[in-house]
Amino acid sequence: MTKNAQNTRTEILAGISTFLATMYIIVVNPAILSQSGLPFSGVLTATVLLSFFCSLMMGLYARNPIVVAPGMGMNAFFTFTAVKGMGIRPEVALGAVFWAGVLFLLLSVLNVRSAIVRAIPQPLRYAVSAGIGLFITLIGFENAHFIIANPATLVSVARLNDPIILTFVFGLLLTSVLVVRDVPGAIIIGIVLTTLVAWPIGRYWGDASAINFGQKTLVNFGEIWANPDFSLLGKLDFMGALKWSLWPVIFAFAFTDLFDSLSTFVGVAEAGGLQDSDGNPRNLNRSLLTDAVATTLAGVFGTSPGTAYIESAVGIAQGGRTGLTAVVAGCCFLPFLFLSPLLSVIPAIATAPALVLVGAFMMQPITRINWGQLDDALPAFLALVLIPFSYSITQGLIWGFLSWTVIKVAVGKHKEVSLGLWIVDVFCILALTTGQ
């Protein structure tokens, strides 16, 4: 096999791995947004369309191996804060998503977002990368129900007497061995073998909710086809969303998506070595423009804002380095316009081990932080730990920025706070006052 053929094979496997790690959004996003009054099937169709078109744009235009899809967290803000909390009609909320995307486009065209990325101090970049890794690991443990809520200790480890947990442990150890032995396609092999082991669980144990989105069997082969629902396409209320009272909602969507996407690009670039000659995420302007387009199209298609996905790190860990990875992942979404019931074939516990291991792959950048230089180390530490502890990339990044500025000024190193970072701090304060 030629080197080009090997690289193409690696990129394809990486794209499939990324899709398997992100495909949960096809079902989870409609499950959340349907509580706002939007039809489940309509949101599912919008989710697939957005993920397909914008992942292709990320691969072909920005040439980065990063999947774009409706963001978790922003769908909850859409449903529970904007619609249920503030009483905004779902169509008006979709309009707010659209205008947030327009604001994004303006910031991208004016290179404001690029300037923000370039203003991020290097120690914070390293910390964000590792923090995102810990966040992905936590998501993996949570998806497997290995880490569970505990009223006494906040969180705890589940008992190892559940076949679901034992299957996850099997998958984690198996995938770890494959990765350590440098087996080609280790992550996909681990997902497939864990899925095969998980199938009997869904059929012979009563509650399989942790692995199959609530169905009692892993797959119902009598129901594999579902027609797409385009009822939400173009149903947003453009003008209704421009009321003065709704601008805080638009800003909340904009600033939350802003920091989510920036931190994802920075973190994934550091972990995968996807930087340009200046040390910034490569093709940054095009990537940010793609992210802005995703948010704008989200309102048109009928879903919450689209953003770059941190789970793209799974494909990068598999060896994905070019836009082909994103193209393959995006194309994997499209068949589920019609085959959404088949999503239950790959259970959450099968992809959870990959998410856990990605955290290990993303920890390397923290070795570059000078932990003896406390005015660098403390802000980096806050960013690192607050991302998983607050369950929010945005919060970790915001407090990393603000603490860096305060500490540097307080110790007489105000020259290490660039003009760009002062501007970022303004965005941070706005995000804290208008965000989720």
UniProtKB/TrEMBL annotation:
Keywords from the named record: Cell membrane, Membrane, Transmembrane, Transmembrane helix, Transport
Pfam family membership, one: Xan_ur_permease
Record GO cellular component, one term: plasma membrane
Transmembrane regions listed in the UniProt entry: 12-32, 38-60, 67-86, 92-112, 124-148, 160-180, 187-206, 246-268, 288-310, 322-339, 346-366, 378-407, 419-435
Keyword Transmembrane helix: yes
Compartment annotation: Cell membrane
Keyword Aminoacyl-tRNA synthetase: no
Membrane topology: Multi-pass membrane protein
GO molecular function, one term: purine nucleobase transmembrane transporter activity
UniProt record similarity statement: Belongs to the nucleobase:cation symporter-2 (NCS2) (TC 2.A.40) family. Azg-like subfamily.
Record-given protein name: NCS2 family permease
Lineage: Bacteria, Pseudomonadati, Bacteroidota, Cytophagia, Cytophagales
